[in-house]
Design a protein that fits this description.
The structure holds two protein chains of two kinds. In chain A, the strands form seven sheets. In chain A, strands 1, 2, 3, 4, 5, 21, 22, 23 and 24 form a nine-stranded mixed beta sheet that branches. A five-stranded parallel beta sheet of chain A has the order 11-12-13-16-20, with helices on both faces. In chain A, strand 1 and strand 2 form a beta hairpin. Chain A contains 18 helices and 26 strands. The longest helix of chain A has 16 residues. By secondary structure, chain B is mainly beta. Chain B has a single domain, classed as Pectate Lyase C-like. Chain B contains three helices and 17 strands. The mean pLDDT of chain B is about 95. The chains are: A alpha/beta, B mainly beta. Chains A and B meet through helix 2 of A and loops of B.
Chain lengths: ~575, ~270
Amino acid sequence: MELLLRNGFVYDPVNGVKGDRMDIAIKDGKIVDCVNESKAEVLDVTSMVVMPGGVDIHSHIAGSEVNTGRLIRPEDHFRDCERKTAVTRSGVGHSVPSTFTTGYRYARMGYTTVMNPSMSPLEAKHTHEELNDTPIIDKATYPLLGDWWFTLEYVKNGDLKGLARHVAWMINCTKGYAVKIVNPGGLEAWGFGNNVHSLDDQVPRFSTTPREIIRGLCKANQLLNLPHTIHVHTNNLGMPGNYVTALETMQCVEDLATDDKPVIHITHCQFSAFKGEDWRTFESGSEEIANYVNCHSHVTVDMGQVIFADTTTMTADGPFQYNLYRLTGHKWANHDVETETTAGIVPFRYRRKNYVHATQWAIGLELALLIRDPWKVFMTTDHPNAGPFTAYPRIIAWLMSKKAREATMKRINPHAARRGLLGSIDRELDFSEIAIATRAGQAKALGLRNKGHLGAGADADIAVYDVNPETTDPSREYRTVRKALRRAAYTIKGGQTVAKSGEIVASPDGSTFWLDVKTAEPAEVGEEMKAKFRDYWTVEYENYPVPEHYLSVSQPITVKAGV
Amino acid sequence: MTTLTPLRRFTFPILAECISPDNFTGKTCKEAGRLNVWEGNKEKKLSDLFKIAESEPETATITIQGDVSKVRRIGANMKTGAILINGNTGSHLGEEMRGGRIIVCGNVGGWAGSMMRNGVIEIHGDAGDYLGAPYRGSTQAMRGGEIVVHGNVGNEAGCHMKGGVIKVHGSAGQFIGFHMSDGTVYVEKDCQSRIGACMTSGKIIVGGVLESVLPTFTIDCIRPKVKVGDEEAVEGPFYVFLGDIVEEGDGKLYVRKEKNPHLSHFEKLL
């Protein structure tokens, strides 16, 4: 099967292509240098933007948490229904769409790879079942290892190699892709109704600290040569004054960085960039975070951009969700996942006229605009925590156009608009920088070599948007850009056209990536640990791992560990 | 005035939010007949299900003659005009209604006046559960307008209510005014238990026998009469309870003293 995209404006930052008119040739699901033009199917994409397929580093699309979100929010489905077509299934959901709809909506916007960032290891099978049912897009999932009892024990004993081998075993066992750390130490404490409030607080019963957990897992991550860094949701998330915690978290692994390579990813950084002593003195701490990130190369962040909409917050950070429930009085689901982690879900509406919400909206954009290097800050909404992923075109419009930002600022809380930095920022991103923030940078941070670029050998995941960068000025005509990004003219996944003018025309299965970490000696699963499974888990050790045949399209990536 | 008569006895649920004076204004019978409705999983035209006749085209009134108990969402989102239904009606009548008037001479299914903002619904029969309540899971319930039921109502009437008035001239089921934060619910006759659970503000009046008052309500005083809406007042005397304390609420629950001697032990707490 050969395909030729003719004469588009190509944005491929990895290969240094910035809007040149080029043809892109595809053969057998890969990008190649040339194809036989007489045989190949030709798509004329003259005066359209051609980019690699979108990559989302952090989006809660599957798992028990997301599913509980679906269960407690019938009103979220009620106003957003999709009918089935000849190729698609029906589905519902605005902030927590059903699995099939998730795949279709991403593909419609030109996204082809999505990372599910929070999976309790115990519920790995459920997560993979849902990922199997999420069509078109490629995906992977990160197991939560920051409050896992064995991690805490290895960290307490200072056994780094043992920790690394154990992490390798857990990643194989859960078919995961990266090490996710959520409120390190805090979730273990939450199991007993407490929390930790700084990097040096003691984790109850484990005589260790969040700092030691982060450093331990960061070192283990390096020993194992994992493609992505540790993926950290900081302590004190969503609390005024937490930008200090975020800075300390980044600083605590500063000495572990070698050759300018990132060693830590701070996710949904907007929620960790709050300044002020309480909600009354609340303000943006984006400048301090951005200054730090600008001066250091060991850290990447993603935005977690707030969208003014009714959404569903869901994180593994149980204590944070409890605070949110106390704040809103809305319904709340709480889950203590045995010895592993916790979870909480609270519906939430971000309101334009609310000072705090409007400031949060500004913080996300400030981070993206103040951090100069687009390879360090990626576009996300932490779907669905700060807003549904379907709002990405709106965020791109805000990033590309000061006029778009001003139009929204006129409608938000005037106090927030006056007090924030955003009004004074003139920077406008171009298509090339958008391509980095939405695909190339994210693929690089994830270590996905065949994604996020259009060089020969890359996966043929391509998004074509019907907007002419020569005649359209995104700064003024941001509405045109936004409209084009909402419905990709063509989305090509693995060389197959899956969406055309925003309509799904084919619904193939996407692959699930996972790391097959090869350690020199296999991780020891001793009798003692097996006995603990019997004592502390509801699942027997033998039933715990996810076998490979559980994944409908399994794509293992072999990693040779240095331990 | 447009008159709709069912062409047959319906067996499948029908979604007909198009039956509203706003949609019918300026349309001839033929044009109105082309409006879309769903019967089960089939999309149909209104004229496939109803005989449509027109008289006095200048008045924005729709009259439905016959049993439409399978037809849901009649008058959804309506802003002006009137709907008169001579027969039983299905669920979600006048959902998110913003104005106008609906009169039903018959019984009504669940969720009548769900999420309504304004207007009047008058039911000369019984109403089902969730009168004036929001959609399942939502907190966006009735915010204004008036619902008058001359018969009985089911459970959870006025659930999550944020404004407006519900008057029930018959009896009511359980959980009346569940989670309500404003507005008034008046039940002329008897009421089952768990009334006002989780309410934070607003007013519930029971004119008949109330099985029991939740333990999270505390007696405040005895009042000779109470206002229902802006004009009407009901003569008492009434016990006045405040609650729901677990929600730190200051909702008022009025219970007629003479009909509820089993609550007289509260008097010694005054």
